[in-house]
Specification:
Order of helices and strands: EHEEHEEEEEEHEHEEHEHEHEHHEHEE
Largest sheet: 7 strands, mixed
Number of strands: 18
Radius of gyration: 25 Å
Distance between the termini: 34 Å
Shape: elongated
Strand content: 15-25%
Helix content: 25-40%
């Protein structure tokens, strides 16, 4: 089954008309995208967009053999004229299946937002799933059980759609995930590629023709990632973003509850509200057993608080205890943790503060903590494939 992407952008296209934002200003050349429309084997058109005929011609295709046009989402604005020779666009009711004379079967998949998803099975059995902008499947226990060769979805806007598909086995490691409906939420280029790779997805330019079911170099999801940053830099958001396309993530909170501290309670509540509902939370600093176990991805937030707990345990704040075995005990705890990171089979994203670039702490204990956190970050980063520094909400890739 052959698929040509006549457009890969949001319904308004990218850049958006008259939008002065930085992403739109840099969406030029191959990063400019028309509204998403898919041509399947020259016979099925999913979403009719302005300029579809010219887009097909530029891609070396013709719409002359199209026998069915299906819409996936409400189209705002004035009514669009249907080019001569094309059938009138329609929509398949949720759960119903349409059989084409070409041998393709199209089943409508219910969404949790306005629109319809389409599961297309080719004459030779290849399967693709196309989701509308802003939509995720509303239940896939039956429809997605056989798995898809290719998924085309709003990966940036609804990464949880991929989590739902992974949860029911509708997506596997070899599923080719193509990001469509791309808007100005993420700057095009390297940042977009990095964001998509974290979800196991990729983007292709408008006009690209793909063969469904043929092996592609699917992006490897980073297995161990350390996210560093200063206070309020956006490091926790960056870490959460890297796993929001996966189900059953275990969020490991190392800070505890701190009864009576209203500011801390507010911070914890903000983090909880931001996390997907399918994630679980464990409040613990005992990280080594979690890393040794098999299971879903781990998000550890954060190593800075883990270090505080470890230094409390070895009496690191007292100079005499520090000299009388405390330093040696802390080094052993850090070594056990980094050894566990090296050996873990789980997908891991950890967060830590980068504190050594500012004012030198006035107290000996403050300087000790600063130094030990620097050593911990360096040792932990040495065991990670990806290391990212977040500055002013922008992720700077240090490794990977």
């Amino acid at each position: 089954m052959e698929l040509t992407l006549l457009g890969t952008g949001a319904p308004s296209g990218l850049p958006r008309p008259d939008c002065p934002c930085a992403a739109c200003a840099t969406a030029l050349g191959p990063d400019a995208r028309a509204a998403t429309a898919l041509l399947v084997d020259g016979a099925l058109l999913l979403d009719l967009t302005p300029g579809a005929v010219f887009a097909a011609a530029r891609a070396g295709q013709s719409l002359g053999q199209v026998r069915q046009v299906l819409l996936s989402h409400p189209h705002d604005g004035p009514a669009m004229e249907v080019p001569a020779g094309l059938p009138q666009p329609g929509r398949v009711p949720d759960g119903r299946e349409l059989a084409l004379l070409t041998g393709h079967r199209v089943r409508a998949v219910a969404m949790d937002a306005p629109g319809t998803g389409y599961a297309v099975t080719g004459p030779d059995g290849q399967r693709l799933l196309y989701l509308p902008p802003g939509g995720a499947p509303a239940g896939l226990e039956e429809n997605g059980k056989d798995g898809y060769d290719m998924v085309l979805a709003d990966v940036v806007g609804r990464p949880d759609a991929l989590a739902k598909l992974r949860a029911v086995g509708a997506m596997g490691p070899a599923t080719d995930v193509i990001a469509v409906h791309l808007d100005h939420d993420v700057p095009p280029g390297a940042e977009l590629r990095r964001r998509l790779a974290a979800a196991g997805a990729r983007a292709v330019p408008d006009g690209t023709t793909l063969t469904v079911g043929v092996y592609e170099d699917v992006p490897d999801v980073p297995r161990r990632t350390l996210v560093l940053g200063g206070a309020r830099s956006g490091k926790s958001v960056e870490a959460e973003r890297r796993l929001e396309a996966f189900p059953d993530v275990l969020y490991v909170a190392t800070g505890g509850t701190r009864g009576g501290d209203g500011e801390w309670a507010a911070r914890v509540a903000t983090h909880r509200e931001r996390r997907p509902g399918s994630w679980r939370t464990a409040e613990t600093c005992d990280l080594v057993p979690l890393l040794a176990d098999d299971g879903p991805p781990l998000l550890i937030d954060c190593l800075s608080l883990w270090l505080t707990d470890a230094m409390d345990a070895v009496g690191a704040w007292d100079d005499a205890e520090w000299a009388d075995g405390g330093e040696r005990a802390l080094r052993e705890r850090v070594r056990e943790l980094t050894d566990a990171v090296r050996a873990t089979r789980r997908t891991l994203v950890a967060v830590s503060n980068e504190v050594g670039s500012g004012i030198v702490p006035a107290t000996a204990s403050g300087r000790r903590y600063r130094d030990e956190l620097g050593r911990l970050n360096a040792a932990f980063a040495g065991e990670c494939e990806h290391v990212v520094l977040v500055v002013a909400g922008q992720a700077v890739v240090l490794r990977g």
